[in-house]
Amino acid sequence: MLNTSRSPLTGKRVQLMATCICDAFYDDVAVATVQVLEHLGCTVEFPEGQTCCGQPAFNCGDWPASRKVVRHTVRTFSGEVPVVVPSGSCAAMLFHGAPLEFEKEADLPAVEALGRRAWELADFIVNGLGVKTWPGKYEAKAAFHRSCHSRGTASGTAADQLLCSIAGLTVIPFGEGEQCCGFGGTFSVSFPNISGGMGRLKLEHIRAAQPDLLVSGDMSCMMHLGGLAEREGKPIRTQHISQVLRDALRNGGLL
Amino acid sequence: MSDSREQILGRVKAALKELPERAPLPDWYADLVVLREARGVTDAWALFAERMKLVNGTPLTSAAELVKLLDGKGWRRGYCDPELLPTLKPAFPDSFKIETSFDRTRVDDYDFGITRATGAIAETGTLILSEADTPTRLAALAPWVHVAAIRRDQIYVDIPHAVSSLPADPNIIWCTGPSKTADVEGILIEGVHGPGMQIALLV
Amino acid sequence: MANQQIDQFAATLPRDKRASVYQSTKGTHEKRTKMLWDQYADPNRLREIAGEVKQHVIENLDTYLPQVEAKLKANGAQVHWAATGEEACEAVHRIMKARGATKMVKAKTMVSEEIELAHYLEKQGMEALETDLGEFIVQIDHDHPSHIVRPIIHKNRREIATSFEREGLGDYNDDPQTITLRARRFLRQKYLEADVGLTGANFVSVESGRVVLVTNEGNSRFCLAATKCHIVLVGIEKLVPRDRDLGLLLNLLGRSGTAQQLTVYTEFISGPKAAGRPDGPEEMHVIFVDNGRTEVLATECRDILRCIRCGACLNVCPIYRQASGHAYRSVYPGPVGAVLSPLLMKERFPEKADLPKASSLCGACQEVCPVNIPIPDLLLRLRDKAKEEHVPSPGTPPMGVWALMASQPAAWKAALVGGRMMNILPTKMLPVPALRAWEDQRTLPAWKGGAFRKWMRNRPAKGDRS
To answer: Do B176 and C263 touch (CB under 8 A)?
Structure first.
């Protein structure tokens, strides 16, 4: 496991890292995340100065640029409370990627400290708060795309566990579920043919299972897969796990 | 050459000098790699035979069975280890032509080669050959059929036991089923260079 | 917007080639996974320990190399050292010349591919024949292997049948069984005529000096049964400390590489044959090859030297499956090759600096690696290295302006609001190449920059919320 050295939870105050992709495109995912956390009794703080986790430059190999952004993020998310992120890849950037690029930097301890406070949303709900089943209802057949940054973390299992517990929701398996969707950040634009090929293969597998919607813990995968499907003229309904959880609460009259 | 040696070792030393600490050698227990199927086995031959069939090997329990199989296929010319011949000879009818030395100038004249195994591994269906017991390497390799004679008391249950009992022999080989390849379109074909049929004969 | 070489290669790969690479890698990967999880309670624990063993080895090579050398010599083998590929080729040539040998049969070894041994020997007027079926076909076609374990994964039976016909191995026949039997017939004469057998080594035990070889076809066994001189070409990183560690590594190698419990032949060779035995080499030479490995050892990417060449990371890799092996322009393709190949280039690193970019960093490679190499981390380190050395990277958007904005909240917020123009202007007119590349294949969702912040700010205070 990548993130085992986490500090134990003490209270129910959390900081939300909304992620740049939700900040720019998917406001409702961030809204749903807040609503879900508040339903669980958390007090959600949103540090206004937040921008991005630093991952784009990190993945491109521009580590000096990435470190600049990570330093800003470390300053912005000061304090002791957990930082909850509705994205497996941004969470992994905080607890794995950033410490890697700060290996030889003097401020490594501060970066690592933020990493120990960082939680992906489903992981936080199940393993942080100890909530293993989800109330409400959601009538649908859902395909759950286990995003790649959940490898080596507890996020994939946690999300699956929550989804499977929702009344009315059936999580259906599809072929080669462990394979990447082909997004990969800037990989998607510098390797357009391979990225597109991977995405189309993923869509083929998903469509073969005939789900009503596609769920993931990472909106970047959804943006890629959803965008490909729409361009193919065969759009597919996508939701972030926070939206499914929030909608289940709504459908059950709990919100 | 000795220059190269010093150069390489020098570069290795220089590369490792910077490491603040070296990774320790982990201890691990053989139990970790023992198959679920191989736990608590009492009849090692039975497990061996079952696993050998899974890799398309042919376990046999009598010389009569062996003769029937070979005769049925018309494989009647072969090599037999001189130490094994006295025990096996009575089972072979006169129609068989068996030699006790292997002539490398006519490797294709032999349908089968019968040699002595040094051991076997039950969990993998593997036969163990060594130079001491199978000095005629070609006889166990070039004919289409290789027969290795094995005794019950020579069978190890699992790989860790077989590894810890490797004899001091310059050439030990574990054979797990017939020679095979899947190089052409991933299709399994047996008998590429070595035997197309691997037999274990319990003696 | 120009894209990366590997992506261009993938775009021109014939559909049937991609399909056959995909089917075959997917099949092996799935069998491998099922086998490991059916047979062991916790295969990941095995991978971790095996990784620790190999990491220990590479971090203690200064101790282990002299130890194994002494052991090999005591066993009756002669030990040679080659700092470069050229030196390794020369060492082989010297051994052959000293014996008056002209004909070599070769088992499959990646190091010999790396140093282009067969070409070298042919230039010296020696015959160096590949005996692994796939490598034999590669050789007669003057091609290159495209997979570490399955060299001709990119060829179909019709191409092979045509090559066999051309080489006089029989009339056109594309039945795999016939192809294989024709190779059997042709090659066995070659073994018997050869003076020297050359193999690689999957492992060399420091404790006993045993050289361990795994094959399925039995060709390496034939090389060692028929010839009188055995040359082992081995990278300096291939050591294991103790014989018992082989129990762990062999259990992982077969399963990871070809979804077999064990490969058909596992050989433990600790020296020349004993006096008076009819078959087997009377001389054994072990050549330890550096050829860039010590340079790798000096970097933060040294973990890649744990690799046991099983090919599992190639089989699972979605990029390898789309692009196939030749896209990597290297002896070692796939995820392991994307790390190892640029590093082995030494000062010519920039020529292969694009390889580490060919990854979505999905991490599947590490998840299947029998020695748990953190391949994604190593790919990232090499991307950093390429950037530091100012190697151009086509298609990769520049990050400077982004970093400036993302470290200044005011600029960031302004950009979030400013981004609205994306919803007004056609994307083709936007001055951002990456967005245009995105839109070639995918739609972009509507820009909602700042909308969440507004919602968060404008909601009623906590006590007033229902």
So the answer is: yes
